[in-house]
Write a structure and sequence with these properties.
Blueprint (H helix, E strand, L loop, with lengths): L1 H10 L19 E4 L4 E4 L2 E2 H7 L2 H10 L5 H12 L6 H4 L11 H15 L9 H27 L12 H10 L10 H14 L6 H10 L5 H12 L7 H14 L4 H9 L20 H17 L4 H14 L2 H5 L7 H11 L6 H22 L27
Antiparallel strand pairs: 1-2, 2-3
């Protein structure tokens, strides 16, 4: 396939493939998806096994370095990350400049881009020790930035990280804790969030990961490339879908909870009405992540909030859609985002913040892809072609004659 692609490129023919539905933009050894069968593996390990036995930090190591860590490797990786969780005091002042009601995704992206200015040793993408350091800095600092974006939005003071805690626990404390008040971490909440991060950690050439690779192909550094990936994730057809699902469920509830009526509106293609959290470019079967998340939603919602009416609406909506020819013919199933918002809400996060949680989970995947891309001798600057549909050559007319 790779050789044929090279050959075609030399012929001068251009493949017209809007949305890159059929274009292999890279070769990659990180994640395998079989969309027909609903299979997902990170570095060969089935997502179901990782969800059951692994942790987010271990999965991050696996994605970035290709193997599960030994005990020593995991300890060293964890302690390196713990040593870099603090933000430079000057970077903290960036948050003052944003409006209080700013969406946290552009805040996150801006602060990550700003890391390039604080760590100028990161500018050369081929300097391996510094790429290693940038990797650790990102994994350590992005949760701190994310927590500060939240604190800024609710007007509470920032908390310094507590490096005796694990990555997820530290993030929860910095997000929900208050200075001078003990913050008790609920192990069920930490476990649920860790699991969601594992399930979001990579998904091969999705829109944000492709963005990271494309920006990186110009030899832009890791921070700059990931800042761009965060902005690609912001869109409602990608990471923004988790917030959009919750808004959809809330509006169905407000209008009396009639899922039939909503499905009719989707099928009638009413302007702007889609069944959010359904459908996927690659999965033409049940998204294996959604299966795991649905079960977790049941457990965590029953435990934390004693159930949730929106979960009942989501399940009714799923049942209704999966028995409808419109969805059957188009092979539309729940994707990773259909049930995540309900869990995030039960954990205490506001809707606007859900996509930031997706970004925290996807971070190791972005890093792994950027590193794979930069080390791959086949990498060229990403530069698609186009089919020109504009005017033929014409004469310039002076203003007086137009
Ligand atoms: N609701 C209703 N109809 C849908 C939906 C949906 N959620 N998704 C796809 N369709 C229909 C389309 O209208 C189209 O029908 P048509 O051929 O009769 O016009 C057909 O199914 C194929 O859909 P496309 O939009 O061509 O599929 P594509 O692969 O381009 O899009 C996408 C995939 C963006 C995920 C789409 O299914 C969608 O918009 N889903 C809702 C948003 C969402 O949940 N996004 C999260 C995706 S997963 C992630 O990023 C984590």
């Amino acid at each position: 396939g790779i050789e044929l692609g090279k050959l075609l490129a030399q012929t001068g023919y251009i493949t017209y493939d809007p949305g890159f539905v059929n274009t292999g933009a890279a070769s990659s050894a990180i994640t395998y998806i079989d969309g027909e069968q609903g299979v997902l593996r990170y570095r060969g390990y089935p997502i179901e096994q990782l969800a059951q036995h692994s942790t987010f930090i271990e999965v991050s190591y696996l994605l970035i370095y290709g193997e599960l860590p030994t005990k020593e490797q995991l300890e060293s990786f964890t302690s390196k990350i713990n040593r870099h969780t603090l933000l430079h005091e000057d970077l903290k002042r960036f948050f003052d400049g944003f409006p209080r009601d700013a969406h946290p995704m552009p805040v996150l992206s801006s602060a990550v881009a700003a890391l390039s200015t604080f760590y100028q040793d990161s500018l050369n993408p081929f300097d391996e020790p510094n790429v290693e350091l940038s990797t650790v800095r990102l994994l350590a600092k992005v949760p701190t930035i994310a927590a500060y974006a939240y604190k800024k939005s609710i007007g509470q003071p920032f908390l310094y990280p507590d490096n005796s805690l694990g990555l997820v626990e530290n993030f929860l404390r910095m997000t929900f804790g208050l200075p001078a008040e003990p913050y008790e971490i609920d192990p069920d909440v930490a476990k649920a969030l860790d699991l969601l991060f594992i399930l979001h950690a990579d998904h091969e050439q999705n829109c944000s990961t492709s963005t990271v690779r494309l920006v990186g192909s110009s030899e832009a550094n890791l921070f700059a490339s990931i800042s761009a990936g965060i902005m690609a994730l912001f869109g409602p057809l990608h990471g923004g879908a988790n917030s959009a699902v919750l808004e959809m469920l809330s509006s169905i509830k407000a209008e009396g909870g009639d899922v039939d009526d909503f499905v009719k509106r989707v099928k009638n293609r009413e302007q702007g009405v889609r069944l959010m959290g359904f459908g996927h470019r690659v999965y033409k079967n049940y998204d294996p992540r959604a299966k795991i998340i649905k079960k977790t939603a049941d457990e965590i919602l029953a435990k934390i909030s004693g159930g949730d009416e929106l979960l009942d609406i989501a399940k009714a909506l799923e049942e209704r859609a999966l028995s409808d020819d419109y969805f059957i013919e188009r092979k539309l199933y729940p994707n990773v985002d259909f049930y995540t918002g309900l869990i995030y809400r039960a954990l205490g996060f506001p809707t606007k913040y859900f996509t930031v949680l997706f970004a925290l989970g996807r971070l190791p995947g972005w890093i792994a892809h950027w590193r794979e891309m930069i080390q791959d001798p086949a990498t060229k600057i990403g530069r698609p072609r186009q089919i020109y549909t504009g005017e033929k050559e014409r004469e310039y007319k002076p203003l007086s004659q137009r």
